[in-house]
Design goal:
TSUP; membrane; TM_pro_TauE-like
Length: 270
């Protein structure tokens, strides 16, 4: 028996457990940060997917795990935004339907077209959209400024962003916020709150697909989900308490990371 405890097998097993524990702590921390950022400006996948891959998860499992963590985690932000009456309910039906349809169409088209082309378009247009959102977006805590938002405009915006979500994906929440602010004239707080509903809808399809394919690690996902829920809760409350002003700052960081991610993907093929 003493020989067993002194064996390389035992030592290697202890090291594996040690690094697994450290990796899990890092993933839980990443889930909290991603949830906080996602609740404010979108972009959980920009943090979670690289974190999952860097800690050794296979790419498909990393994608599935991101949907498991962020889709459930965003419920906390949705609850707070609904409680604060920041969601523009009059446009939700149009956005839900078009986001679902757009994501489905995007997923089908990706089989025919190279994703690199869309990556370059997004990288080129994001600074313009971000600047427009910063200059034109007026933060309000009520829905009055968006009460007359065009049903058709919301439908087209959500179909387009939903298409992107199905076609490519990273930073969908940020794109929803920018589009709703610039095109639909929503305040940043309203755009962030309403975009959570639309993004949640577009995520459901991918969530179900990965779950059916068995690409989710539910057991290790439990602490990540808890951390994501906490991050979403704190992030959404922060956005509400600052009257949405923090959204501008976090949006710049989130979109900046997305642009770097898209450029790296384009030039490296990763």
């Amino acid at each position: 028996m003493p020989e067993l405890f002194n064996s390389s097998f035992f030592i290697e097993g202890s090291l594996i457990a040690h690094y697994f524990f450290i990796g899990l702590i890092l993933l839980v921390a990443a889930s909290f940060v991603a949830g906080y950022i996602d609740a404010i400006a979108g972009g959980a996948g920009l943090i979670l997917i690289p974190a999952f891959i860097l800690t050794g998860l296979p790419p498909q499992l990393a994608l599935g795990q991101e949907k498991l963590v962020s889709t459930i985690g965003t419920i906390a932000a949705i609850k707070n935004f609904i409680k604060n009456k920041s969601v523009i309910w009059s446009v939700v039906p149009a956005g839900l339907i078009s986001a679902l349809v757009g994501a489905y169409v995007g997923a089908r088209v990706i089989l025919l077209l190279p994703a690199e082309a869309l990556s370059l378009v997004i990288v080129a247009l994001l600074p313009v959209g971000l600047l427009a959102a910063t200059i034109k977006g007026r933060v309000k805590t009520t829905a009055q400024s968006a009460g007359n938002a065009s049903f058709l405009a919301v439908f087209l915006v959500c179909f387009t962003v939903g298409f992107y979500d199905g076609f490519f994906g990273p930073g969908t929440g940020s794109l929803f916020i920018i589009a709703l602010t610039v095109i639909n004239k929503f305040g940043l707080l309203q755009a962030s709150a309403t975009s959570k509903i639309f993004n949640f809808s577009s995520n459901i399809g991918a969530f179900v697909a990965f779950a059916i394919a068995g690409k989710m690690a539910y057991l290790i996902g439990i602490p990540m989900i808890v951390a994501s829920l906490l991050g979403n809760h704190i992030g959404s409350l922060h956005a509400i308490r600052t009257n949405g002003e923090i959204i501008r700052k976090v949006l710049f960081v989130s979109v900046g990371v997305m642009m770097i991610t898209l450029l790296v993907k384009y030039f490296t093929g990763f």
